[in-house]
Amino acid sequence: MNYTVENRSGLGELLHFRHNPLDFIADAGRRSIDVVCMRFGRSHIFQVNHPDLVRDILITHDWNFVKGQGLHASKPVLGNGLLTSEGELHRRQRRLVQPAFHSERLSSYGRTMVGCASATAAEWRDGTQIAVDREMMCLTLEIVGRTLFSADLKHDAAGVGESLTRALGLFLKLNHPITRAITPLRNRMEAKARRCRREIETVLRRIIEEHRAQPGLHDMLSMMMHSSDDAHAGYMSDDLLLDESLTLFLAGHETTANALTWTWHLLGQYPHIGRRFHDELDRVLAERLPEPADLPHLTYTNCIFRESLRLYPPAWVIGREAVTSYRLGDVEVPAGSMLVLSPYATHRDPRFWERPEEFMPDRWLNEPDIPRPKFSFYPFGAGSRVCVGEHFAMMEGVLLLATLAKQWKLHHVPGQRIDMWPQITLRPRHSIRMRLEQRISVRNGSPIHSEPNLQQETLTIAN
């Protein structure tokens, strides 16, 4: 196949890329450029947009690539967790974590998700304003705590969220060429990142000590702790246990919270879609809260969440480094080159998406009938490093939207500017303020109230 290739170089292009990476990367996707070749000094960077090339890099020839510099810069915070580790260590850790996300566990997780969301809905008040991004961060962090760590993090959510926000703000600075070139500056940034980690570690260490005092717990953290005492898996040291726990904190709540935040933002912009959304909830659920068994019937809700992931993929860019020389079609990629794969760009390519910049959940209703390359949509990555919690996140997104929207409509507060902040994840640059409107029951004309059920379930995970 002949791929469209574009060459870029020069200080102006570098400054554009550094100043507005989203605009720079999305531009090639919008113009259906398959490969963008960039050279800045001795550095070779290739932006890869075509789904077939994405498949080759992430699956077919994944052995020839390691994680890019961006995630290596996060090691002062994340250490050697699943997000940053390589080779055999990554494979062992993934095998250890994978059972926590098996399908037989998801129903138990789903009931906890609905209980937490119902409690949040009960705390909201009609006519008041909320910072929806903060609300979603606190909610998803509480869910991660309850489902994967058997811990109540409701009172820790704000502090942990602030520490993660500061850490994320440092990641791109740590990866900047100037930071890497000036040792004192890099050391200062890394010291700040380590301070953020220590703040989060305080919460994690408390949870770990609570687990050691309750050996009867059978959640994912207990499973990892058991492995650290196993003579055949001695790699699971206390330091690595902290690394994995912190990685799951970040990946388990940060990405879903961002996806939900952008979904509420989109629903606020398209009220006609919001009306169809509420109609489905009333039809499928009537007066009750959703359950995991309702997921196949919440068709339009699922379409809304998938379309939000298309427009605002939390993992907006994936970096890889070529171990040996490689070919992208007719383009020679030298060993050591950086490859940038961006769902944000590919999801905007008009060859694969009709009116790609528009929020159109209906496009997913006919998805099986549309001849579209598989990796034209890959918000969770692909291959051996595909997000281990993909099904967890999809279920969480749909159930939380359904639970909160059963009782509430969210409207934008006028006069605010909403910008994207592309860090490791795609966050809003500033909090998104929304006004709450309580929904009225279609049956009895009274406000809809939900009864939260936060009964903690004991999670048993096969070892």
Give a verbal description of the structure:
It is a single chain. With 463 residues, this protein is of the alpha+beta class. It contains 17 helices and 13 strands. The chain has helices spanning 11-19, 21-30, 51-60, 69-72, 75-78, 87-97, 103-123, 132-148, 157-175, 177-181, 183-213, 220-228, 238-269, 271-285, 299-311, 343-346, 390-407, and strands spanning 5-9, 35-40, 43-48, 65-67, 129-131, 318-322, 326-328, 331-333, 338-341, 408-412, 420-422, 426-428, 433-438. The strands form four sheets. The chain has a six-stranded mixed beta sheet with strand order 1-2-3-9-6-4. Strands 5-13-10 form a three-stranded antiparallel beta sheet. α15 (299-311) crosses α17 (390-407). The chain is globular, with a radius of gyration of 22 Å. The protein starts with a strand and ends in a 25-residue tail after the last strand.
Shape: globular
**How many separate helices?**
17
Total number of beta strands: 13
In which range does the helix fraction lie?
40-55%
What is the residue-averaged pLDDT? 86
List its salient traits:
single chain; 463 residues; alpha+beta; six-stranded mixed β-sheet; three-stranded antiparallel β-sheet; 17 helices; 13 strands; 50% helix; globular
Summarize the model shown:
The protein has 463 residues and is α+β, with helices and mostly antiparallel strands.
Sequence-ordered SSE layout with sheet pairings:
Layout: E1 5-9, H1 11-19, H2 21-30, E2 35-40, E3 43-48, H3 51-60, E4 65-67, H4 69-72, H5 75-78, H6 87-97, H7 103-123, E5 129-131, H8 132-148, H9 157-175, H10 177-181, H11 183-213, H12 220-228, H13 238-269, H14 271-285, H15 299-311, E6 318-322, E7 326-328, E8 331-333, E9 338-341, H16 343-346, H17 390-407, E10 408-412, E11 420-422, E12 426-428, E13 433-438
Parallel strand pairs: 1-2, 3-9
Antiparallel strand pairs: 2-3, 4-6, 5-13, 6-9, 7-8, 10-13, 11-12
